Amino acid sequence: MMRHLAVIAFLWGLPTIGLAQDVTVRSGEHQGYSRLVFDFPGRVPWSLDQAEDAAILRFEGSDFLFNTDAVFDRLQRDRIRAVTVGQD
User: Are the beta carbons of 38 and 25 closer than 8 angstroms?
Assistant: First the structure.
């Protein structure tokens, strides 16, 4: 009986294994700076690489689907010109 319960519990959780998590990206414009907010379900390790005219922000962990549709609703394009999601 316990083995059957364990198999049922495993199969119940199976559809969620490997699914990408949706992450909404919000923004804010403030005196002297612009802000991007990533709505992760918890803490996620990240790293930042800066080039002369770009910054690459990487998040470790599960696959994420970033929703950037509303990023420029509250931002002017004088500090942040574009937000793109790369393959990795």
Answer: yes
